[in-house]
Design goal:
Shape of chain A: elongated
Helix content of chain B: 55-70%
Oligomer: heterodimer
Number of helices of chain B: 3
Distance between the termini of chain B: 60 Å
CATH topology of chain B: Helix Hairpins
Helix content of chain A: over 70%
Strand content of chain B: under 5%
Number of strands of chain A: 4
Largest sheet of chain A: 2 strands, antiparallel
Number of domains of chain B: 1
Number of strands of chain B: 0
Distance between the termini of chain A: 63 Å
Number of domains of chain A: 4
Radius of gyration of chain B: 20 Å
Largest interface: A-B, 97 and 84 residues
Order of helices and strands of chain B: HHH
């Protein structure tokens, strides 16, 4: 247990205290007590920056289950530290914002406890070196995210969104666990650093592609990549601080973290690079394309998040090329730097944008862009922040989004120089998709600014709009200032955070010395691409009314949401149908399954094992034996065919008495005696039962012949005969009975061997058999005496 | 002889199966009875038939038939009798409560209505 372990668990430990405080302190907003926790963690993590920038890594072990390799190993390098700082830093701002956003009437105790659990989970994900612990924290983020989305659980949409996100992210998490286990089988370790060290083993293993796909499924579902992005827009039912924190800045980046973390392991794999590149770009384009048509502010931001995550994902794909072709390949290390930089940038501007959306919602009562308008003069501070952050999102100078977007476009142009599988031939597509996505990004960014703050002031808003209180404004102001600061002075980040993070993605020790500059010269294609994006985007926005109709072609039936909903409905219907089909409620059918299964297994066993039957070693057949056999067969036939119950009872008696005779012939006098006595009593019982039958069921029917029943019972009989013969033909060793015969008098002082076995050698059987008898007697007594009738019970309940 | 008894017990068990698959509870109980007869016969057969004398100690006899299967069957007879008696009473009780001995009619009413 070191300080860093304590830092990871601090939120959860504090959550207990918060729950108690919530119980007793009612005057002060609970958020004020929560605020110091992420702030302290952030401060502690900031203090680690200089050492990490100096290529120092921290590694601490906490043994949990060392025998199976489950240890809580914390490993801090540039990448982990970057994410941890984002989590705790933005966490502090979100808590501050939530103090203004959530009133004291809400169930604040629940909110902050969930949020603190999430914080621990997220810190655990990014700082764990052990994949099992990573998986543990990963699922904990899913669970706490589920709880936070359904915070207003009385609303159907919240519950729907929570369920959807849970199903999708749990699916991915589970697949990811499979990938981790494959990796640990290959390398023999659960430690990520060990896996990176043993990358040769992974390269050589035929299981590697499976691990790639499984781990990427985890990353794609969590980071809302195509086609798993569908949960993110529905997660917007969460309170806005949650959307800002989980669904823009931190949790959705867990997938990116995973991809970045495993890049040194998997970069050799063509599958890995292709999947990340293509999925990222498709997501980028599709997310931004869909964002334009949305009217709800948070929906626009959700699709925008999807699109930006896709952009980072594709950059990580290019970054993998750098690892695959040697870490010093300058061309592609740019992509890694861009990815890391954009992770920071996106966290700042998207966090701020969500907070702004929350402010608008809070102060006007609606999030619909159509109902808002002309708020520029009414909400000047909010307006300024929106301008800054939206333009940064659109990729315009001088904000930080511009810098990372330039790097992104540059990386996409340079992909044509990749010497990697068929990448060079398809490389034309990448910049085109990237630019198209950027154009739509530009369009919805402008739409956000223009639709909300410009134009005529509408009076549809439920509340009279006015500027938000300082408490709400503080956090987005800090984030927007960061947008400008990082935009103007990007190099304060590059040396301290971006380079160490990029180096851990590339798994290299050589310092990168990145210099991010605004100006790359006229001959840089990325510059012209940006110009094109702005020009085309502006034109598209100006003439939006003439092309927006294309969205009408995107009918509900063709969306992935529809597919998901229908899939859910049909899987429920299908399983209901399956159970209804099998579980009919009829005893007969269940018995058919059971006997049928017995027959099938018997046939399969016979087929594969063979049944060596030897027809010898049989005793001679006497005439009286055959007579008995015939009596039994005739009685059986009568039972099967008769209409009368009485006759079948008597025939059953005949079979029983024949059995007694058999026992007599086969030298078992005790058995014969018992069988005689018991058969008499049984027959009497049957007759008593018969006598008590209600009159109306007197019209007795003969058994209807059922073909399936016949087949099954013949099968059972044949299998029994075959197995009996096989068992008889293959006696492996002599009976142990000789011991009983030899010692019956010496040890037990008795002459009747059967009785001595029953009460002496194997007396326990007899004891328990007596118990069975006693229980049956008590049961019969209870059945006869019990007066309770279910029908009466029900009537009483209804009355 | 063992060949005959094995086949006989196979036929007994097959008929029992057929009866158990019928609708009437009385027939099912008859089927269970026959099933136990078939099984007892099979156990006895596995201990070999007609080898040696009745297993009661006698100085003039050197070979006895196997006493162990007989002890096992004795236990099994008693237990199957207890089962038969209990299920018969259960059948009786069922008649009184439900007025039917047809398993297909014993569907009951789903809870909650």
């Amino acid at each position: 247990m070191t300080l860093i372990h304590l830092a990871i668990f601090l939120p959860v430990i504090a959550a207990v205290a918060i729950a108690i405080i919530y119980r007793y302190v009612k005057d002060v907003h609970l958020g004020w007590f929560v605020l110091p926790i992420p702030a302290v963690i952030a401060a502690y993590l900031f203090s680690l920056i200089p050492s990490v920038a100096d290529n120092q890594v921290f590694h601490h072990t906490l043994n949990l289950m060392p025998r199976i390799g489950l240890n809580f190993d914390v490993y801090i390098d540039g990448l982990g530290l970057l994410f941890a700082i984002l989590i705790s830093g933005i966490g502090s701002l979100v808590v501050l914002y939530s103090i203004g956003y959530l009133s004291k009437d809400e169930r604040l105790g629940n909110f902050y406890v969930y949020l603190l659990i999430f914080m621990t989970a997220m810190l655990g994900v990014v700082l764990s070196d052990n994949v099992l612990m990573l998986y543990f924290f990963w699922e904990l983020t899913s669970i706490s995210s589920f709880l936070l989305i359904a915070f207003w659980f009385t609303k159907d949409k919240s519950v729907y969104g929570a369920q959807k996100s849970m199903l999708i992210t749990f699916f991915g998490g589970f697949m990811m666990l499979g990938g981790f286990i494959i990796l640990s089988i290959i390398t023999g370790s659960f430690s990520i650093r060990e896996m990176i060290a043993n990358v040769d083993l992974i390269t050589a293993s035929p299981l590697a592609p499976l691990a790639v796909v499984l781990i990427l499924l985890g990353a794609f579902t969590k980071s809302a990549q195509f086609p798993f992005y569908i949960w993110l827009p529905d997660a917007m039912e969460a309170p806005t601080p949650v959307s800002a924190y989980l669904h823009s800045a931190t949790m959705v980046k867990a997938g990116l973290y995973l991809v970045a973390r495993f890049t040194p392991v998997f970069a050799f794999s063509e599958l890995w690079v292709w999947l990340i590149l293509v999925t990222g770009l498709v997501t980028l384009f599709w997310g931004s394309f869909n964002a334009v048509k949305k009217d709800d502010l948070k929906a626009v931001l959700a699709f925008s998040t999807v699109s930006q995550l896709g952009m980072i994902m594709s950059l990580l794909g290019v970054g993998a090329l750098a690892v695959a072709s040697g870490a010093n390949e300058q061309l592609f290390t740019v992509a890694v730097v861009a990815a890391v930089f954009h992770i920071i940038n996106h966290a700042t501007f998207k966090g701020a944008l969500f907070m702004v959306a929350g402010i608008l919602d809070h102060e006007t009562g609606t999030r619909s862009i159509r109902k808002l308008g002309g708020l520029m003069t009414l909400m000047p501070i909010t307006f300024t922040m929106t301008i800054i952050t939206s333009l940064s999102m659109a990729g315009l100078p001088p904000f930080n989004g511009f810098l990372s977007k330039e790097l992104f476009l540059e990386a996409m142009f340079e992909i044509s120089q990749a010497n990697f599988s068929a990448l060079a031939e398809w490389s034309v597509l990448f910049p085109i998709l990237a630019i198209a996505g950027s154009i739509f990004t530009f369009v919805y960014s402008i739409k956000l600014i223009h639709g909300v703050f410009f134009g005529k002031r509408t009076h549809d808003t439920p509340k009279e709009p006015h500027e938000a209180p300082a408490l709400l404004l503080a956090s987005p102001i800090i984030l927007s200032s960061l947008v400008i600061i990082f935009g103007l002075f990007p190099n304060i980040l590059s040396g301290s955070i971006i380079d160490p993070a990029a180096m851990s993605i590339l798994a290299s020790d050589t310092a990168l010395n990145t210099k991010i500059s605004h100006w790359h010269g006229f001959n840089n294609p990325a510059l012209w691409a940006t110009v094109a994006v702005v020009v085309i985007g502006a034109a598209l926005y100006l003439f939006r009314n003439s092309w927006m109709f294309i969205y009408d072609y995107h009918k509900e039936q063709f969306t992935l949401n529809y597919l998901y909903d229908q899939g859910l409905i049909y899987s429920e219907l299908g399983s209901a149908k399956a159970t209804d089909g099998i579980m009919t409620g009829f005893l007969r059918e269940y018995m058919v399954y059971i006997f049928g299964f017995f027959v099938v297994i018997g046939v399969i066993t016979t087929f594969y094992a063979g049944l060596p039957i030897v027809f010898d070693n049989f005793a001679e057949v006497g005439l009286q034996d055959m007579a008995l056999v015939i009596i039994m067969l005739v009685s059986l036939a009568i039972i099967m065919m008769t209409r009368s119950r009485m006759v079948s009872i008597i025939m059953l008696g005949a079979i029983g008495f024949s059995m007694a005779l058999f026992f007599a012939f086969f030298r078992a006098p005790d058995l014969a005696l018992t069988q005689l006595a018991i058969e008499t009593v049984t027959t009497t019982l049957f007759l008593v039962c018969f006598y008590h039958l209600p009159k109306r069921s007197k019209h007795e029917e003969s058994m209807q012949f059922k073909f399936i029943n016949f087949i099954v019972s013949v099968g059972v009989g044949v299998i029994v005969i075959l197995f009996g013969l096989a068992a008889y033909s293959n006696r492996l060793f002599d009976s142990i009975s000789q011991y009983h015969i030899d010692n019956v008098y010496e040890l037990a002082a008795g002459g009747n061997m059967v009785n001595v076995i029953l009460v002496d050698f194997r007396g326990y059987d007899t004891l328990m058999e007596t118990l069975v008898f006693g229980i049956a007697g008590i049961g019969i007594y209870a059945l006869m005496k019990a007066k309770v009738s279910r029908k009466d019970d029900d009537n009483e309940e209804h009355a | 002889m063992e060949l005959v008894t094995i086949i006989l017990s196979g036929i007994l068990i097959a008929s029992a199966t057929y009866l158990i698959l019928s609708k009437s509870v009385l027939r099912i109980i008859i089927g269970l009875s026959i099933l136990s007869h078939g099984v007892h016969l099979m156990i006895l057969t596995m201990g070999q038939l007609k080898r040696g004398n009745v297993p009661v100690l006698d100085d003039s006899v050197s070979s006895y038939s196997d006493p162990l299967p007989q002890a096992l069957i004795l236990t099994a007879i008693v237990i199957s009798f207890a089962l038969t008696a209990y299920s018969l009473v259960l059948l009786l009780r069922n008649y009184k409560e439900l007025g039917t001995d047809n398993t297909e009619d014993m569907k009951g009413v789903p809870h909650g209505d």
